[in-house]
């Protein structure tokens, strides 16, 4: 029998003690079987739950060491594919309610209800932030995380006040949270092992001149959404002024969903140009100018009631035609894949319901859940693509047997391929599998895994009557 998914994701881990390594594998398997359940429910008894708590509080355990094996497995999956690899970067926030929030840290100041004297009530939000890089294929298949960083804002206390006193561009990048974008770019490129294949994609927060320069030094690609109207050409104009003189190369239609989940269509007019982009005035002695490609995609005739779509992208990849500009837009549109991953992590694994008391313990637990959330996302997309993965490579023989027995008779016709078993898992999670239904998503997949774990336990008890006395 082949290597299990748990073995594959932990083979590269070394916690300095073989007992800790074995415990890591057992905990990952338990959380993978019951994503979203409380820790006592996932680990089933007090002995395993207590061992898990000791594991999370062990000083020799850290989130980096926990994910080291997954990073190595992601690199192997990257090397097993051909063509470009899109590495999506983004930040998410986890909020917690604690009687002693200082043990975890704070993420932001939240504005609450209006007080009688007219002021608004404000309070610090207890929580952690995580900045992650997710490698995917251009078809949208998640290959795994390549970097992850955890922190609270207390580490950067005073930075905002400093930026109010001086020009923010003169604050060293090492003193800003923005440094996370550069750290992840460097680590992801190294772990992927093929900088020329990587395209690092980020939203407007990633519009950092230092990132452009680092990508050039590493020989890797980037595609980010711009929010800064930078100096361009000879320094006496800006990107927006140059782009205003560029003729549109054509149009492109996209589909998207708004914050409420409503589907929309939009026709975008595309303009693209190659130009010299210069660093901010405060950094011109340290950094050289860059020759980059600019793409502006602006919606034609936007409807009333929602803001128009307007993407301003900047990249060091070739954009010499309308087709290449559209291609880069399609790549940027795949950035929502990391949002889906974060949703799976928060809603599916229910991170914010975990009752661990300190930041280090929470980061260790979140690191384990990141691997579980990736597997759910990977399996969801794997069954939709043209990849040649077999069901035996994903599910054990016992799991396949139970899924076949749990499948209604009318659904058992046809090949027992990977799609058959993924749909069987989804049906356990509430997927109706009607002819007109879209393919199952991550929500029904993670629910289905929890149901499957119960079926496996029931089958084990049924075949060993002595367990029940």
Automatic annotation (TrEMBL):
Domain Transposase Tn5-like N-terminal: 3-61
Protein name: IS4 family transposase
Top-rank taxon: Bacteria
Residues in Transposase Tn5 dimerisation domain copies: 371-463
InterPro entries found in the cross-reference section: RNaseH-like_sf, TN5-like_N_sf, Tn5_transposase, Tn5p-like, Transposase_Tn5, Transposase_Tn5-like_C, Transposase_Tn5-like_N
């Amino acid at each position: 029998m082949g290597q299990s998914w748990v073995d594959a994701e932990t083979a590269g881990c070394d916690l300095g003690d073989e007992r800790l390594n074995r415990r890591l594998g057992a905990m990952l398997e338990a959380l993978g079987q019951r994503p979203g359940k409380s820790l006592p429910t996932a680990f089933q008894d007090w002995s395993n739950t207590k061992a898990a708590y000791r594991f999370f509080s062990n000083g020799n355990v850290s989130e980096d060491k926990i994910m080291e094996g997954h990073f190595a497995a992601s690199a192997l999956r990257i090397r097993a594919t051909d063509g470009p690899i899109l590495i999506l970067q983004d930040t998410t926030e986890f909020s917690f309610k604690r009687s002693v929030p200082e043990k975890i840290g704070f993420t932001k100041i939240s504005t609450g209800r209006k007080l009688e004297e007219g002021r608004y009530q404000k309070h610090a939000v207890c929580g952690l932030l995580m900045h992650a890089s997710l490698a995917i294929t251009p078809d949208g298949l998640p290959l795994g995380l390549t970097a992850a960083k955890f922190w609270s804002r207390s580490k950067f206390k005073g930075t905002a006040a400093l930026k109010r006193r001086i020009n923010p561009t003169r604050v060293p990048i090492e003193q800003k949270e923005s440094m996370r974008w550069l750290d992840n770019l460097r680590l992801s490129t190294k772990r992927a092992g093929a900088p020329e294949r990587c395209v690092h994609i980020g939203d407007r927060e990633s519009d950092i001149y230092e990132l452009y320069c680092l990508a050039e030094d590493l020989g890797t690609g980037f595609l980010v959404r711009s929010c800064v109207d930078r100096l361009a050409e000879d320094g006496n104009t800006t990107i927006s002024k140059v782009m205003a003189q560029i003729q549109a190369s054509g149009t492109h239609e996209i589909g998207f969903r708004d914050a409420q989940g409503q589907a929309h269509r939009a026709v975008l007019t595309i303009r693209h140009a190659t130009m010299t982009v210069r660093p901010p005035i405060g950094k011109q002695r340290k950094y050289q100018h860059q020759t980059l490609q600019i793409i502006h995609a602006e919606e034609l005739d936007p409807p009333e009631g929602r803001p128009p779509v307007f993407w301003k992208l900047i990249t060091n990849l070739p954009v010499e035609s309308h087709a290449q500009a559209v291609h880069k837009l399609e790549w940027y549109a795949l950035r929502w894949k990391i949002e889906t991953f974060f949703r799976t992590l928060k809603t599916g694994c229910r991170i914010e319901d975990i009752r661990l008391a300190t930041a280090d313990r929470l980061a260790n637990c979140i690191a384990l859940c990141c691997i579980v959330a990736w597997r759910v996302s990977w399996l969801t997309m794997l069954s939709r693509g043209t990849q040649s993965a077999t069901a035996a490579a994903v599910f054990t023989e016992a799991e396949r047997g139970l899924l076949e027995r749990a499948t209604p008779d009318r659904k058992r016709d046809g090949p027992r391929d990977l799609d058959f078993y993924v749909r069987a898992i989804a049906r356990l999670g509430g997927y109706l599998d009607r002819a007109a239904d879209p393919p199952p998503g991550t929500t029904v997949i993670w629910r289905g895994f929890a149901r499957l774990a119960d079926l496996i336990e029931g089958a084990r008890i049924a075949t060993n009557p002595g367990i029940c006395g």
